[in-house]
Write a structure and sequence with these properties.
The chain has 534 residues and is an alpha+beta fold. The chain is built from 17 helices and 13 strands. The strands form three sheets. A six-stranded antiparallel sheet has the order 7-4-6-5-9-10. It has a five-stranded mixed sheet with strand order 8-3-1-2-11. A two-stranded antiparallel sheet has the order 12-13. The radius of gyration is 32 Å and the shape is globular. The N and C termini lie far apart (75 Å).
Length: 534
């Protein structure tokens, strides 16, 4: 099974499931042979791609316009022209096709993907989920020889189904196909690059007129944009349709969000849309998509009809913050499932009587994250309205969120980092004198041991040290007394009477009471209710 070298994770689903699930490896040879066997294992498996590969695969869905005898013959002619051969198979009972391109040596997976993708686009093919996809890619692909697999003739008709022959015969036939049809990738790439270069010069000179008027053709002034800007012409065209027409049928929201967010990186002068590239424009793209969806859903989105904007906001945020080269993934992988999580799912199912799935865990996490971010935003605005400085400790007090949650969503409340909190001395250090700084968090004793210190997460108020007219207060940090009582001279002597605090420390108790009232006010405001009269 050297054709599938990456085993650290894989995808799987049962025969009656629609969506794939991702699981942590290792994936063993026995598990692969198990799903390829005559009896099967009651499930399907798929592998991710390593950095090197011995083959490429073209995935053509059942409803693709390329799934017919004429298009199959045309693809074979293109591959023959560059010295490659595509072996056609049916991938599953759904009727989709997998065209395997075997190589006689290992090749870089990224190079294979980008070369084939650019070349096929230059020939006018639409590389998009549901039509034509190219592997290797960042997605996993269904393993061959499983239930529903079949060998195809040159016209796409089925020659032999996997269920009609024994396991050893199926494996031998598949490997023989590879051995007989493997080609040299280096030579094929040289010929492909030559075709791309010729097509690029023709497009740049404006002589490639046969592509004009085709809404799926490349709208590029040469191939420079394709190489350097990561602009996907098919996505741009799709986005323009959605911008002009809105949603026209159910199930389009997902595609519309990804297509329009891709267009926003490059802008659209004809429609008066400015460029919004980069991470610093994530929020601008999110707001644009929210406004567009609110105005142009045309009653075709059930989440909008149900006013479920929290889930819609999360969907839009994930789309805008994603940094992949292309948006829709061919294999839906909702959640990374480890053995521990699988045990938890089984336990929850037994306890509640409801069949829990990894997607349920993902949705629950998304809802908790959205709720936390909403509370943090509200807390930030509350502090600003009160004229107080926004710090992590204050956010924690108001929202009840943990240190790690507030740290994770630091982008909302934007605190500058770099200052360090003082650390206590160890057992071998008799103590060190530190000048006191008045920090607002210093009067909640219970939080000192609960909140870990961090150099890059400053919870201090960072106010200037107070200059008092009395003896300055010092703190002597020591964790232990000498073990022998006769060494009393080394013991830490603490005065029986504290230093006078002076006028600058007046009202500390009132400060604590004020904080309690502010927390109460925040929670009433966050709930959208007026506080009770005092």
């Amino acid at each position: 099974m050297s054709l599938f070298p990456r085993r650290d994770c894989f995808i799987w689903k049962t025969y009656d499931q629609e969506r794939w699930q991702k699981a942590a490896g290792p994936l063993l040879d026995a598990q692969i042979f198990g799903v390829m066997s005559d009896e099967g294992r009651g499930l399907f498996r798929g592998c991710y791609w390593s950095h090197k590969t011995r083959h490429a695969v073209l995935d053509i869905d059942r409803n693709s316009r390329y799934r017919n005898a004429a298009e199959l013959q045309k693809l074979q002619e293109h591959f023959t022209a560059v010295g490659l051969y595509a072996i056609p198979y049916q991938s599953s009972d759904s009727g989709g096709w997998h065209l395997y391109l075997p190589f006689d040596e290992w090749a870089e997976s990224d190079e294979v993907n980008q070369t084939l993708k650019t070349w096929l686009k230059s020939l006018g093919y639409e590389i998009i989920s549901g039509q034509l996809e190219i592997f290797p890619s960042g997605n996993a692909l269904r393993l061959p020889l499983q239930k529903g697999f079949a060998w195809l003739s040159s016209d796409g008709s089925i020659k032999v189904r996997r269920e009609e022959i024994r396991e050893d015969e199926a494996l031998a036939s598949f490997l023989q196909d590879f051995e007989k049809n493997c080609r040299n990738w280096r030579e094929a790439k040289r010929l492909i690059d030559s075709q791309i270069h010729s097509a690029g010069r023709a497009a740049g000179a404006g002589v490639a007129s046969n592509a004009q008027g085709n809404e799926n053709a490349l709208d590029l002034d040469g191939f420079e944009l394709l190489w350097h800007s990561k602009r996907i012409p098919e996505r741009i065209q799709e986005a323009r349709k959605f911008l002009d027409q809105g949603l026209t049928e159910e199930g389009q929201r997902h595609s519309a969000i990804y297509a329009i967010q891709h267009l926003l990186w490059f802008g659209d002068a004809e429609r008066g849309i400015p460029k919004m590239p980069g991470e610093h424009n994530d929020e601008r793209r999110q707001q644009f998509l929210k406004d567009w969806l609110a105005r142009n859903h045309n009653g075709k989105c059930r989440h909008v009809r149900r006013s479920n904007w929290r889930e819609l906001d999360e969907h839009i945020r994930r789309a805008c913050e994603w940094r992949g080269q292309e948006q829709p993934q061919s294999e839906y992988v909702p959640y990374m499932t480890t053995e521990t999580q699988q045990d938890a799912l089984i336990g929850l199912t037994k306890k509640t009587g409801y069949l829990w799935t990894p997607a349920d865990l993902e949705r629950a996490n998304q809802k908790r994250e959205a709720s936390a971010r909403d509370k943090i935003r509200t807390a930030k605005q509350f502090l600003l309205d009160q004229g107080r400085r926004v710090t992590g400790r204050q956010i924690m007090r108001l929202t009840g969120c943990s240190y790690h949650t507030v740290k994770k969503h630091e982008d909302i409340w934007s605190i500058s980092s770099g200052a360090q909190l003082p650390r206590a001395a160890g057992d071998l250090d008799p103590g060190v004198l530190l000048p006191v700084r008045l920090v607002e968090v210093g009067f909640e004793k219970k939080e000192k041991s609960e909140i870990p210190f961090s150099q890059d997460f400053d919870f201090e108020e960072q106010e200037q040290p107070i200059t008092a007219k009395v003896v300055p207060l010092s703190i002597c940090l020591a964790n232990s007394q000498p073990s022998k009582p006769q060494q009393k001279a080394q013991a830490l002597r603490v005065p029986s009477e504290g230093f006078p605090l002076g006028p600058s420390f007046d009202g500390l108790q009132a400060e604590g009471q004020m904080w309690k009232r502010e927390i109460l006010l925040f929670h009433w405001n966050h709930a959208g209710r007026d506080p009770p009269s005092s």
